[in-house]
Amino acid sequence: MSSAPVSRYDIPELKDLPQDIRNRILQVQEKSGFVPNVFLVLARRPEEFRAFFAYHDALMEKEGGLSKAEREMIVVATSGANHCQYCVVAHGAILRIRAKNPLVADQVAVNYRKADITPRERAMLDFAMKVALGASDVDEHDLAQLRPHGFSEEDIWDIAAIVAFFALSNRLANFSGMRPNDEFYLLGRLPKEKR
Amino acid sequence: MSSAPVSRYDIPELKDLPQDIRNRILQVQEKSGFVPNVFLVLARRPEEFRAFFAYHDALMEKEGGLSKAEREMIVVATSGANHCQYCVVAHGAILRIRAKNPLVADQVAVNYRKADITPRERAMLDFAMKVALGASDVDEHDLAQLRPHGFSEEDIWDIAAIVAFFALSNRLANFSGMRPNDEFYLLGRLPKEKR
Amino acid sequence: MSSAPVSRYDIPELKDLPQDIRNRILQVQEKSGFVPNVFLVLARRPEEFRAFFAYHDALMEKEGGLSKAEREMIVVATSGANHCQYCVVAHGAILRIRAKNPLVADQVAVNYRKADITPRERAMLDFAMKVALGASDVDEHDLAQLRPHGFSEEDIWDIAAIVAFFALSNRLANFSGMRPNDEFYLLGRLPKEKR
Amino acid sequence: MSSAPVSRYDIPELKDLPQDIRNRILQVQEKSGFVPNVFLVLARRPEEFRAFFAYHDALMEKEGGLSKAEREMIVVATSGANHCQYCVVAHGAILRIRAKNPLVADQVAVNYRKADITPRERAMLDFAMKVALGASDVDEHDLAQLRPHGFSEEDIWDIAAIVAFFALSNRLANFSGMRPNDEFYLLGRLPKEKR
Amino acid sequence: MSSAPVSRYDIPELKDLPQDIRNRILQVQEKSGFVPNVFLVLARRPEEFRAFFAYHDALMEKEGGLSKAEREMIVVATSGANHCQYCVVAHGAILRIRAKNPLVADQVAVNYRKADITPRERAMLDFAMKVALGASDVDEHDLAQLRPHGFSEEDIWDIAAIVAFFALSNRLANFSGMRPNDEFYLLGRLPKEKR
Amino acid sequence: MSSAPVSRYDIPELKDLPQDIRNRILQVQEKSGFVPNVFLVLARRPEEFRAFFAYHDALMEKEGGLSKAEREMIVVATSGANHCQYCVVAHGAILRIRAKNPLVADQVAVNYRKADITPRERAMLDFAMKVALGASDVDEHDLAQLRPHGFSEEDIWDIAAIVAFFALSNRLANFSGMRPNDEFYLLGRLPKEKR
């Protein structure tokens, strides 16, 4: 549908990329049916690409006290606060799918305080916003708000680290003019959609 | 799908409303297939209801230099800046339909500077954001940015007045906990959708 | 005294206005001894004029739990926060008259936290400032601060709606360069003044 | 008229003050007809009192390129930006008298960008606001905006130093809850008033 | 080491200065081994110089409930918040010496919330930051946080007055481009250093 | 000297760490004479540790148009803006060493606009601050300010990516209460120091 460029930087050709990076891209294409633009934009710098996705996977694909939907919810709230179009649109789609909820991503992106979320999720996002926008003021009082909701010390690290990683990711996307793929906008919105 | 309340205030019964308000609500229901919650929430105060929609229609339904899609684009950008969930979701749907573009509303809500919009639309939204967030500093220099894009003095008034009206509307919706109808989220996103 | 223009937009001639608008203007002139410039600036758009004043009167002239002086106090604090010269000067005059207090308007406009006001008025203005400047964060906690001071749910709506209406009004005045009439500055300041 | 306390700190008795401070207070009382509360609040600390008024007089009573009305205009704009009730009300009165203009103080306090001031005064206040609110960013570019309006290097120092002195004064007044005398509110507002 | 100018304003020759100012400068030179640039920059205006240092000494050299190290800690935190290079570097050196602690100045300048300070010092700096950045909101609640830590009403005035004085000083230094002497950077950092 | 904990999270024992991480830590200890705390705090999460340092090295150790001192200058300015004590102190030391300049790190941390830096460095840091604090507004105009100073498109990516990486790093350090080692404070300050 759209012909706007994927980024203000040129995108490398798949054939010119190192084998491991080409493999990762082909793998995501097979799974999703398209290549999310973040893979194409970052591929021009193989070392940064590898570190970025290793970090991403360590935080987003791990087991632990946070569900995968909760992790994506943190990403969407953080990216909304940072006005990052790529991450709100792309991770909004993933959140809809993982939470099996077609509404929650738009709600969290605009104003998580008005979203249909649980008190646990609300506490998680209040803390996430503190790390996103005022990390220099985080203290024990902030952590104490999380524990009654069942978050362990490791879960709290996870929340903070996801926010921190997307502080990086949102700035890269905003700086490089990274454009979300058209496919993301509709993903997870239709009742019969499967995954 | 959702059972969360429509507002923190009780919603009156349709049968208890004054005739003109009941008529307006039945009319919008017939046209849209559902009653947008803003009509229900405001109906408890008939005089304010009448003034609100008279003002809304005077700005949004009028003829003039701004297209209806442009007017809705101003609403979505303003409501994004004010973190108003009801207005971003509801007017995002109307913008998708009026612009015949399933992507633009999400783009404008998150970060209009990265949206697929024309230079004219960009100038319009830059000015709208100045009125939304820093009206006390608006001066001739701001207006001068608009004229090369073909905006007349009356168009400029329209832009500013739409922003001002949604400064009101966004605050009412945020204060009253006005919940967007589930129907809005998907409207205008599917290629075959007609109106 | 002053010869600066009333607005950056031309002011229509009284004789060219629709009958109802002309009548309203003549009525206010008879009551006040002069025509406040807001009537002249908005008269160029009759439909918006009618909606604006219908909304204004519904909020400011109604009976209810808030006194008229309290309503004006909300307007002055909101307009101070929005740096709106027209509304601070014009409604400051009305507040002085309605509160029979020549000092309170200047105090509230500069810093309501230091004004000679009651705890009830302080709570009312704290809430008003939350709606004016951070409506997206308003929650039950904010409303709970008001109830011990005798504010009903309808009074709370009134406070929020007055702030929201002046969010609109302040932006229109600031955008259009609406100039307060010289007469307002001295009104309500002299001990013997009657109304 | 008012019985609210002059400050959150006790006010010393005139008879207990050092001779030089008592003289200064009696002198201002004779000239003004009342003792501005700033003299009473600061008198409890004689050394700070002497340094404060020595600094004040060095900046506000000196000869130089800035008129006395211009100096007071800087004070009112600075004090408005700092929401200092004492200084807006007290120096607003002095500005009205020195500028022989009953309107300009209220205009400058609320929004100097909309005030009836000359381009020279506008440039002066733009620079003053930069020093008041963002001194760490002041650079040669800011100073260059002043020179075409006839401000010398010494005048520029005067502007900055007055803003800096009232950064001190406004914080002292806000912290100590310094209350403006009732007499200030009406001073300089009546056409026949002499001085 | 450095050849950058001491200020954007010319520095007077010592021989051209009034006797009392020359004496003060020679005295500080004898004590410190160099002349801190603030003395040279302000000397061009003798009356302001005298008032500035009289005020400084009244607050910083007095006896009272605050230790001299605590006073310097307030200066460093305030100057960090105001991004004033001269005052952070110069008073950071004095703080290191007075607190006999080579680390605390850098910690307080960057983020006092993470510094190795006592709960009493933390409460003192929380209050100082409120006066520095939001004096218009200071109220009894803020003062009440200080009393359990042993601060008297006079100590509280001292804290606020030091912040207020450096609100002035930081703006003067930032505006005038006052450069810290190279000597300050290393003072108080070496374990064997004596004073 | 200090006994405050290294972080609010426990630090693993070196012997319990995976071989590659232990090796990296021993290697830095040999080179620097101590183990910077960031290695100890992150080691508790081996996968994140590896990704973090891979990313760090890809940006900070690479060849390219930016000198190593310029890269560290970006880190110090970013970390100052984010009030990150660990990164200002640790990278301040590295900057002093790499720039062979004992003053520049403190200057850049407090206010880079007043630092002794070249116009090229000033442009680099202006852009870095835009990415750090307002990435959602970055546009072609910002990039255009860099090119006249000799920055290539790849250099611009480097600047933005370093800022983005330290947006992550600063949040991790602030959240986890990461304490800078005492050794950093004095590094690079003494004239005879070698490396």
The shape of chain A, in one word, is globular
The number of helical segments of chain A is: 9
The major β-sheet of chain A equals: none
Task: Estimate the mean pLDDT confidence of chain A.
Answer: 95
Greatest contact between two chains? A-F, 39 and 39 residues
Report helical residue fraction of chain A: 55-70%
Topology pattern of chain A, helix = H, strand = E: HHHHHHHHH
Q: From the structure provided, what is the oligomeric state, counting identical versus distinct chains?
A: homohexamer
Radius of gyration of chain A: 17 Å
Distance between the termini of chain A: 24 Å
By DSSP, the count of extended strands of chain A is 0
- Low-pLDDT runs of 5+ residues of chain A are none
Describe the protein's architecture and organization.
The structure is a homohexamer. By secondary structure, chain A is mainly alpha-helical. Chain A is built from 9 helices and no strands. Chain A has helices spanning about 20-30, 35-40, 45-60, 70-80, 85-100, 105-110, 120-135, 140-145, 155-175. In chain A, helix 4 (about 70-80) packs antiparallel against helix 5 and helix 4 (about 70-80) packs parallel to helix 6. The two termini of chain A are about 25 Å apart. Chains in contact: A-B, A-C, A-E, A-F, B-C, B-D, B-F, C-D, C-E, D-E, D-F, E-F. The interface between A and F is large, with 39 and 39 residues.
